[in-house]
Fold these 4 entries.
Entry 1:
Amino acid sequence: MINEILDIASKYVDSAEVYYLENKSTPVNFESNKLKSVETKDISGVALRVIKDGKLGFSSTTDLEPSKFGQLVKFAVEVAEFGTEVDWNFPTNKIESSSIKMKKAPDMEFLVNTGKNLIEYTLKNEPETINGVSLNYNSSREIIMNTNGVSGHRERDAISFSLYSQLIRGNDMLGIYDGSTINSTEINYLELSNRILELLKNSKAIFQVNTKSMPVIFTPKAMNSLLIPIEPALNGNAILKGSSYFTKKLGKKVMDERITIYEDPSQGTNPLHFDDEGTPTTKKSFIEHGILNGFYYDIQTAAEAKTKSTGNGFRGGLSGVSPSLSTLVFEGGDKTFSEMVEGVEEGVIIDQLLGAGQGNTLSGAFSLNIALGFLIEKGKVVGRIKDCMIAGNTFDALNDIKDIEKNGRWISGGTKKLPSVLFNNMNVISKNK
């Protein structure tokens, strides 16, 4: 099929690339402690890019009837007539294929029973909770080929599972979520439930805090929200436009010297040997001991920046290519979470935030509601805080840290490994005072 499309395209264009995607998923959802839905979703299709007379054309389709391939090529050629001018070509390098397949794919019965077990265990320990569970088995296959000889494929099986527990007492409504993604059927639902049960236990006593600047510990979930401005700031396209916070700061200190942030496509639950353009991926350090080392590019932005692609050209389904990260790793420090808590005389822990990403992500400024936070007094967690906000600037905060947790945790679908971080001072704002 792919060779047939390339053969047709090569008659009309200078070079061509075909990206094939096949994705099967089985989402299972529980709401209010009961099974709500079980579905099976399949999608497959191709995306075609062509270069003709120095201009880029694109088209895609989910209709894989061979009789429609000519039309796919025709559309791409027509788009190229008015397309972006390019002075680059598709890759010529060799790429390594990969396969992460489960020995036995989970069936619906397995997913449903896992969800039931997760809810039953949670209710056994916290009978008053109202629980929602989402499980999804996903199997994907991708192929990239071009007329310059590049050919590679990757296959991946994964299960994502999450738990949302709600506890309502009078006017107090508490909601706690967590989840994981793995490449096997060995779902440790007890670990997931126990994490939430521990948070529920610490949430029973409720405290009000006064508006003040104080030490704050961000857990990995909260760090994921805090670091939202980092990825766009490292995007080569933002550097080209001059809209990045890191513009003209290459080689300069931009964060605390203990911070190292890098991408390692070989890690996480979806290791990648090449991006969606067929460029090999590599480990790359963006921030090393606080120094800004570099940015990430796809082929187009790299050409505009007069550099080489970093292997970060990715797609959302069958859409066009844009610069994106495969993973983001925030290197761990030298303290355990308990040690960080014990070192705080008065402060708060933030686990969940509301409104992340809705502020000025370019500048790093934020003002967010604390959905789940805890008060620390004399090195101990004493209870939950309510009706509070946290305000500040991501880039300023990353220059004012006290400690970094030793071991990070993979979150966000297994694409980000983040530790908890203790910040010296952040503005905690009470809505009541």
Entry 2:
Amino acid sequence: MSMNYYKMALEIDKEIGYYEGIANNLNNMVSLHRATGKNKDAIDYYERALRVNKKAENIKN
């Protein structure tokens, strides 16, 4: 159930270009996957969050 909310929030953040929110939602998904033992999925979401954070840093600078 939590994952559905994270996904909805992620889509909203993507629509408005809110990179910090995108990264936060992806990191929340990492935590959820880690807690349920889905480590491969957690790594995938972590890598996505990392890419978004790097993109956000490039935009700031």
Entry 3:
Amino acid sequence: MKKASIILVGDELLDGSRTDENGPFIETQLTDAGFDVISLIIVPDRIESMISSFERSLKECDLTLVAGGLGPTPDDLTRKAASVFFGKKLLKYDAAQAHIESIFKKRNVNMPPENDIQSMIPDKSRIWINPSGTACPFECIKDGRSFIFLPGVHVEVREIFNCCLSEYLAEISKETKKKRFLVRTFGVSESAVYGILSKNKHLFEKAKISFLPQIPGVDVKIEETENCECPVEIRNEIIESLKDWVWCSGDKTIQEVIASFLNSLNMTISVAESCTGGYISNMLTDVPGSSDYFKFSAVTYSDNSKVRILGIEKEMLALKGSVSRETAVSMAQRIREIGGTDLGLSSTGIAGPGGGSIEKPLGLFLTGISSKKKFAAERFLGFEDRIKNKRWFSFFALDFLRRHLIGEFGLKMEDSIFD
């Protein structure tokens, strides 16, 4: 198996002002293409640091992917480092220049002269067009080993892989793609997941199993090995063992799962949010084509807005409070009626850092759901961090919706398997 390394360039990744998204994504793409990724390092925007990392990778790897430092400003030094390392002059590539000019023309904006530098690429490089940005990726070869240079903007990196690079990497790896599955869970800790699966020791003997905790859950990655005759059966056994917490098998988001469910049922939804401040609606509308099922939303943050916009009864709010099962259900019912949709979903809670009491502690969250025949609410206790709570609350609400769709409308766990 050919070896690969990833080099991420940028002072902002080292000083903490930016969080890296490219590393895990590129690693997944390389592994899927059949490469053995042996290292991932971050280097500053300094030519000598980049060249040093290039030299090490040249000795160890067949392929190196470098991301970052291809922008138009003086601190973008990767192309200069590549020019020095490969001993190639930077030349203007007409295809890259035409692409950059076309982007500004489409925006009806004059191209700044500073962008000209982005068409300067080491001589005899192979280039690809960046479908969503001005920095065109390019490949340089040294001693028969490949270095591919990418921009640092994560959205652009994803688009470049989707349009051309994934296919190219599969061609040069010449490896049979190994099967890999991702089982996604919510509401259970990493240690508990391991404790459950460790009772079946044969799983770890037949496949490489990794545990990936993140907000808001734990992913279980299953990778095919030489001893694994049927990785699908191992995945299915893991899903069965963790069935109370599994919300998806495959590299999907919770909102993509909800989209699949609602589309298959031909159902529509409206959302009333309080403590999540529109986060649930934002997640749902991240999915292309969400207008097919997402019809209406309202952020009714104050009690007054709940009364005035949703028509929640003042007496009920005074008696039960805005953070209560009754309010969550009433919000879901009213937003469904106002939006004229099949389903209504609501959120109310105490995101913090202030507020809370013995009866209703900080981090308390309730989500309600309403259909034409049924309504329900569920409680979740979060954390003290406001931003973290908003993310967890929103995910919990969508997972509650997922479970409701399975329970009421006959969907099965198999409908959540996408790999």
Entry 4:
Amino acid sequence: MRKYIQIIIVLFLVILTSIVIYHQYNERKEYHTYLDSQFQRQFYDLIGYVENAQVDLAKAMVANNSKDMIKYLNDLNFHSYMAHEKLTQLPIEHDSIYKTEIFLNQLGDYSTAMANKSLDGEELDEKEMDTLAELHSYANELSQELIELHDKLSKENINFATLKRQSNRDLSKFNEEMKKFDLINFEERMQDYPELIYDGPFSAHLKKIKPKLNGKIISEDEAVKIANKTFKNPVKVVGKLENTIIPGYYLQGTEDNSDTRVSAAISERAGKIIWYFNPREIGEDRIDSEKSIKIAEEFLKDIGYDNMIPTYTMNHGDHSIINFAYNENGVIIYSDLIKVKVASDNGEIIGLGTEGFLINHHKRDIDKPQITENEARQRISDTIKIKNTRLAIIPTAGGKEVLCYEFETEFGNDTYLIYIDANNGKEVEILLMVRDDEGTLVI
């Protein structure tokens, strides 16, 4: 009888285990399908935005008045920005699409510079029109390559979620695989893309800016110690960052108990973490946005970044990206930017970008505003409701900085940030804050 009962118990446990395994398998399969659909949507949207940008360029070139040209150039800025956002969400290593990212950034940035010129009553000269034509040619080529890539991926029945897993395990092998589908080939053709010199944040002349980093030159061994002290996954130096604004060491390692490849960059001068990237698979959400912000704040304090305040947060399903800006005596300095990526399953820091801070941060002598807050308020329309006000230093398109009053305002159902120069009262910038379930996007 006893033996019979034991057999029943064993059978029960086997059945129960099978049910659990089957349930987990179905959950993973559903999540796999969800990931693939998300990536498919991102890719489809990327094609659409690039095609729209191409059309905007064509319309801008044939517009016979400045009003129409400004409209098309503003549309171009938006579509280029959104195309860049979609591109960076695909499971492709950043280094492999670096030139394409620069192209999309400069495409929107150059359009803004030209729109501002038109707003000032100036006509675009022959060289600037030729540049628009050249940008249109590259946008057309990128659009065609993306469409062909989409067709090839469909014919090969490539699953984006599978590509994501491959990129987690070995990005180099993944990139070799992607060469079959031409996206990397397009990146190679971008080597002939010309440098654009204009008044904008992605202008080629700003690449020559020297970071305001002070400190001794560190060795490879010291770089490894800094990375291993900060992050749990051991890494080693595999190369150097050269021909970049911040020279440094490139490090790689492997995520614990998996094949996931983690990578980091440490500055050669002063030994600062430039970026860190851990593309591991992320489990079930347990950490909400508020908790993620607190985790990111504590992490920055632990690695020596004090007086950083969270500005905007974006939630991407399984992780959050929090933007931080430096706070100097109540003045928010947006130039000194740090981004932290937090996994939503356990709160682990899986991404860090400090380049903005390392390039721009320095001791500033912030002068007293020449106009009062009330005087600045008078520059804002009475139809707009002002919610909050604070002083902020914002970067200009040409790489300079301006002390402003930052007004968070409401008009209708939309929220805007309006920046008024704290010295002459001129309107410097207006940004739209798009809030949804994924966080806040500022455009």
